[in-house]
Every structure is written in structure tokens, then in C-alpha cells.
Write a structure and sequence with these properties.
Helix content: 25-40%
Largest sheet: 7 strands, mixed
Number of helices: 6
CATH topology: Rossmann fold
GO molecular function, one term: transferase activity
Number of domains: 1
Strand content: 15-25%
CATH superfamily: Class I glutamine amidotransferase (GATase) domain
Shape: globular
Structural class: alpha/beta
Keywords: Glutamine amidotransferase, Transferase
InterPro entries: C56_PfpI-like, Class_I_gatase-like, DJ-1/PfpI
CATH architecture: 3-Layer(aba) Sandwich
Order of helices and strands: EHEEEEEHHEHEHEEEH
Family: Belongs to the peptidase C56 family.
Strand order of the largest sheet: 5-2-1-6-7-11-10
Protein name: Glutamine amidotransferase
């Protein structure tokens, strides 16, 4: 069984967190929610998310991928050295990294974008480019193990690509 981490922090974009979790679970993937500490976190629109594990309790070697939600959560998530290490380790091992909307901020801070093709919300396009990525205005971009999408309307393409990349690993 494949195992994926879903990063969580308050103010995540509700659809960008829950759609990947539900779609991957539907595909038979174990998705573990992980945050700074166990507890209940809330999305931008108030949807709760109960988390049982902290960043310090997980290791990239035990998982096949990691998902970063959009919303304002990425600005909080990128401040945790353990999150950046998880993302960098996943990239180094060629494991799935899913990022949508503002989630690209975490990949910028993890220094994994040099020479990569990605997309994101246009609002952070310059951040992505300044981190060494080639930014494309497309619904979903796949560059090896990194799957990126712009925003909620792109979720169908994003979900399909996440499952395809994970199944190829």
C-alpha cells in the first residue's frame, strides 16, 4: 500500500487539502495528516481537519509522497525546518510532491525548484521563477516527481496527475 503525507496548518484552502486526501484514499493510498502538533486545524472557510501526528513523528523514508495544500497555510508551513527537510528528502528520493496554489512557497523555501517546470497561483509566479523554476500558466504541470496546479478549478487535472505519478513510482 502506498503512503502519502498531507501537510496541515491553519488557513489551508479547504478544497486543495481535502480533494487530494479523498481522491488518494479512494485509490487505496494511506494518507496521513501531519501538522506542527496533534489537534484540530481549520481551513480558510472553516472546515476542520483533525491531525494525529506532528512533523517530528514522521520521516520521508516511510512515505511515497507528500502533499502541500494551498491557502495561507504554506506561508506558515515553510517556517518549520522539519517540513523543509521532509520536502527536500522526498525530492532527493524522487518521491511524489504535490503542490497547488500558494503551496509553491514551501517548495521555494525547501530549495527544490531549480531547473524544474511548475505552475502555481499567478500571485507567486515571481517567487517560483526567482527560486529557479520555469513557471507555466497551465492547469497542471508534471516535472518528474513534482505535480503542481494553479487553483481549485484545476483540481480534476491535479488529482489525475497525482494518482498517475504515484502509480508509476
Amino acid at each position: 500500500m502506498k503512503k502519502v503525507l498531507q501537510l496541515v496548518s491553519d488557513d489551508f484552502e479547504d478544497l486543495e487539502l481535502w480533494c487530494p486526501v479523498m481522491r488518494l484514499r479512494e485509490a487505496g493510498v494511506q494518507v496521513d495528516l501531519v501538522a506542527e502538533k496533534a489537534g484540530v486545524y481549520h481551513g480558510k472557510y472553516g472546515v476542520p481537519c483533525e491531525v494525529a501526528m506532528s512533523f517530528d513523528e514522521v520521516d520521508a523514508k516511510d512515505y511515497d509522497g507528500i502533499l502541500v495544500p494551498g491557502g495561507w497555510a504554506p506561508d506558515k508551513l515553510r517556517r518549520f525546518p522539519k517540513v523543509l527537510k521532509l520536502v527536500a528528502d522526498m525530492d532527493r528520493e524522487g518521491k511524489l510532491i504535490g503542490q497547488i496554489c500558494h503551496a509553491g512557497w514551501v517548495l521555494v523555501s525547501a530549495n527544490v525548484l531549480t531547473g524544474r517546470k511548475v505552475t502555481s497561483t499567478p500571485g507567486i509566479k515571481d517567487d517560483m521563477k526567482n527560486a529557479g523554476a520555469t513557471w507555466l500558466d497551465e492547469p497542471c504541470v508534471v516535472d518528474k516527481n513534482i505535480v503542481s496546479a494553479r487553483r481549485p478549478p484545476d483540481i480534476p487535472e491535479y488529482m489525475k496527475a497525482l494518482v498517475e505519478v504515484l502509480n508509476k513510482q
